[in-house]
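Q: what does this look like with flavin-adenine dinucleotide bound?
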Amino acid sequence: MGGNNADVIVVGGGVVGLAVAFRLQQRGRRVIVLERGRCGREASWAGAGVISAANPHRSDAMYHMHCESIDAYESFCHELTELSGVNTEYERCGSLDMLTTLQAVEMAQSDVRATADQSMPDGQPVMEMIANEDVRGFEPNIARNCLAFALRRKTAQVRNPRLLEALQTAGTNLGADVREGIEVMRFVVEGDRVVGVDGGDPHGGTIQKFRADHVVLCAGAWSAGIGGGTIQDLFSVYPVRGQIILLNCGGRPIRHVINRRDLYMVCRGDGRLLAGATEEHESGFVKRNTPEGIYWLTLSAAAAVPKLTEMAIETMWAGLRPGTPDRRPYIGLVPGFPGLVAATGHFRTGLTLAPVTADIVCELIDTGSTNRDLRRCAPGRSFGHSG
Ligand SMILES: Cc1cc2nc3c(=O)[nH]c(=O)nc-3n(C[C@H](O)[C@H](O)[C@H](O)COP(=O)(O)OP(=O)(O)OC[C@H]3O[C@@H](n4cnc5c(N)ncnc54)[C@H](O)[C@@H]3O)c2cc1C
């Protein structure tokens, strides 16, 4: 495909944009992805790759979308590996919550009751309480100074930099035109319709015109900053910094994703253990590690798995999650701007929700509608008392 015209322009080459482009291209659409830097180097790269189980108490449309995404993840990764040759290291490792307060125990017990009718393919319950004396069999290295543990078998992990490489390669192999180093400056509206975008080298130079029947906004934390009439007023997306430390443990001191209060840890097959993540709402667009963040991460990790105090810190990083006031994404047709579709603001679950988000965007572009209830993800929604 040549030129700057396509069926669909995807703005942003993070996990959401690349998943959308991959699925659309599979359905025969001609897609151009415009990425300001290099694809998959922002929040999607910085993330921990935990494919988190859905909160069973939120039996709304978002809960069902979340369940759909985690249930589809294994075959999604398998398909990507087939098409790209890249192993995403997907693993349904399960997670173990370390419960340190009575309230946390009661909430976990309530989650177990709420999921009592669900089971794994091998018949095991999706969730189960584990007593202190039994946890050694699951995770010999974790601290046992907890009241109890909750095992969530649906939690999985993926090596997100590999997932991104697989998505980009698979999409490109199918014919997607991925342009790196192009910053979208504004949406182009003709009449009431979004007909394309203008963009170019972020460091200056000629502005290029890109035209398409549909534009999909997947610019992560930067989504509210793209010009074009009043479109940006419909998106309250802002950066929420998350810091992570990476320890090189040689072997695997933990098998499950371990959650202890606000900290989680996940260990890759090669013994690299990620401990994350801070949630900093006032960070602005500043990606950096801070002494306070690293202090909290190292102390919390050592409290959960004492053996980690002996391990080498290999590196650390920070990324900017696309936050929204109600912690829900924007997914849907953008009211008042036909031609524009939103897929942004995934906050802490963008890696988890990318497959279902891509399917929904395809449906919206193919048919103009979806049978899913997207009201709570609607662009332009108000945030009155929803918290
Ligand atoms: C520390 C941390 C840990 C996390 N852990 C997990 C986890 O374990 N599981 C999980 O599900 N989620 C996790 N997340 C959240 C997840 O990473 C995000 O929700 C997800 O990556 C968002 O994907 P995205 O494609 O919307 O954004 P991004 O990956 O940020 O991609 C947006 C892209 O758009 C580009 N862009 C921006 N503006 C423009 C423009 N004007 N023109 C062209 N391109 C533009 C950017 O350069 C960027 O590449 C974590 C996030 C962080 C920071």
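The chain has seven helices and 18 strands. The two ends are 45 Å apart (CA to CA).
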